Amino acid sequence: DGAVDDGTRSYPLDTSSSSYYYGCGPYDYVSGLADQFYKVLHDAEQPLWNSCTTSQLVVVTELVDIKADGQLSERIYDRISQWGDHIMPRDHSFPVDYYNTKKLMKDLGLPMQKIDACKNGYMLYWKDDINLDYCKFCGEARYKPTRERNPNRTKTPYAVLRYLPITPRLQRLYASQATAEEITWHANHQTEEGSMCHPSDAEAWRHFDRTHLDFAAERHNVILVCALMGSHRMGSTVARILVGPLYLHRTISHRECA
């Protein structure tokens, strides 16, 4: 068995035959995602070398954390990795540079999409506008100027939006037994009449469940809350903006709400 570490505890995973995410049942869709994740995790948790009690994943994550805390450059990271390669047994599985480290961590991580944006925030260069070189609203250039004339050179945009798809992040919550129990806690906890220890005890939540019976019957369904606080200047006045809730969210127990 492997383990998923949430930073405080480790929870066992059946990496030999993972046909489901914890608590989800044998659904084919999540089965493929689980098998892929468990395979990468299992490979990363192999000993750093034969008879070593430390896994490749533990060493790499610790070293990446040190790089971030110390703001080390990739060149310094490579030197540390090469020094480790020099002193370790020949059969070790430690990545010898930052490039290979990123490949390993990428497979364990979650997807992110970079989308070029207008430097003034008017638009995204996305879908039908993905090939534009200038903002269609303010006319500002999409890319920073360069002196090089090489047409194959990668252009550098002024601004980039990093889009983090929500679906795989919610699915990953079911990859750990601990978080799978937390995300379904609302359906199993005992409610005390007259008290609210979790949003699921509120009348608004109960009204939503009564209105959407099929959705409420599946305790693994996740409903999101999205609220936007900010201000928008209109002439000489500033209007306060509050949008939400657009969705409801059922993921964590009362212990996490404290």
Kindly describe this structure.
The protein is of the alpha+beta class. It folds into 3 domains: 2-108, no CATH class; 113-163, no CATH class; 184-257, no CATH class. Helices cover 36% and strands 12% of the residues. It has 10 helices and 6 strands, in the order E-E-H-H-H-H-E-E-H-H-H-H-H-E-E-H. It has helices at residues 28-44, 56-70, 74-87, 98-108, 166-172, 177-183, 185-188, 203-211, 213-217, 254-257; strands spanning 2-5, 10-13, 113-117, 159-163, 228-234, 237-243. The strands form 3 sheets. Strands 1-2 form a two-stranded antiparallel ribbon. Strands 3-4 form a two-stranded antiparallel ribbon. The longest helix has 17 residues, at 28-44. The chain is flat, with a radius of gyration of 24 Å. The two termini are 33 Å apart. Mean pLDDT is 77; it is low at 1-23, 25-29 and 231-258.
Features:
single chain, disordered C terminus, two-stranded antiparallel sheet, flat, disordered N terminus, 258 residues, two-stranded antiparallel ribbon, 10 helices, 3 domains, alpha+beta
Per-chain topology:
Layout: E1 2-5, E2 10-13, H1 28-44, H2 56-70, H3 74-87, H4 98-108, E3 113-117, E4 159-163, H5 166-172, H6 177-183, H7 185-188, H8 203-211, H9 213-217, E5 228-234, E6 237-243, H10 254-257
Antiparallel strand pairs: 1-2, 3-4, 5-6
